[in-house]
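Ticket #210: bound-state structure for zinc ion.
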Amino acid sequence: MTGYRKIGRPLSAAWSCRSGAAGMMVLCLVAVSSALAQQDGSVNAAGLAAAPVCSNNKGEQVEFSSSDRGRPGLAAGMAIRDASGKPVVLRSNFAAAPREFQQFIDRHECAHHQTGDVDRPHPARNGPDHLMNESVSDCVAIRRLRDEEGFGKPSFDKVAAALRADMAKIGFPESSIASRIRNLSGCFANPASAHDLITQVLQQRGLPLP
Ligand SMILES: [Zn+2]
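RESOLUTION: The complex was predicted; output attached.
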């Protein structure tokens, strides 16, 4: 989810993890095996946000699962296919994040499935293609929250504040943080829908539309 899926650091907030970093892959697999029982159909016992409707560009339903693994105090998400090939979003440490940010991470990770990122070769870490994928997922996520969940400016500000805090905690420079929030803000202000953007990306990539 956020920024930048393939950074070789511990899970970054909202950045999905299809990382080549060995430690991260171990984490992903462990999380898959232990957490799928906690599927979120609504607000769950732990008070986490309900998982959104999500299917990928091939029409496969994406499942969400939660764990407390990952870096303590840092909410994160990963968009991957599990060992059986099923598309999943793994949530970690969501209880550490404000509800609005939980909702954002879920939709950001879902967008990596919706745009086909998960099934494509991973672009170079923090290269332009990678950053573009992250910007697209951020944009899809914030527009879904605006159009489907009624997010206004106060909720947007909560997402931006949580994102800023987590990125700073991870060690991203202010320039990266500001750039990301600028992109989010522009997407939020633009009346185009998440669906419009997903369609555009899939068409550019020559991928099937759902
Ligand atoms: Zn991402």
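RESOLUTION NOTES: The CA atoms of residues 56 and 114 lie 4 Å apart.
TICKET STATUS: resolved
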